[in-house]
Design goal:
The chain has 71 residues and is of the alpha+beta class. It has helices spanning 7-13, 17-25, 32-39, 43-55; strands spanning 30-31, 59-62, 65-68. It has a three-stranded antiparallel beta sheet. The radius of gyration is 13 Å and the shape is globular.
């Protein structure tokens, strides 16, 4: 009766628009400062979104940069 979504798709559907935008931008490694410049979002607000994305294991840190986790 219900179409089952993949766990990854279900996770992406629960993200905010800004979190999805951050995830898309992190297809290439970027620092938090780079993300702030590109998005125009305050670093403090970005950190909250980054924490959510890290907890969901959608992004990871590589040194001082962040990058999307690829399956």
């Amino acid at each position: 009766l219900f179409a089952s979504a993949s766990p990854e798709r279900a996770t992406l559907q629960t993200l905010t628009d800004r979190q999805r935008a951050i995830l898309t931008l992190l297809a290439e490694p970027l620092s938090i400062d780079d993300l702030a410049r590109v998005t125009g979002v305050d670093v403090a607000d970005l950190r909250a979104d980054i924490t959510v994305l890290e907890l969901r294991r959608l992004i990871r840190r590589e040194g001082s940069r962040l990058v999307q986790v690829t399956s």
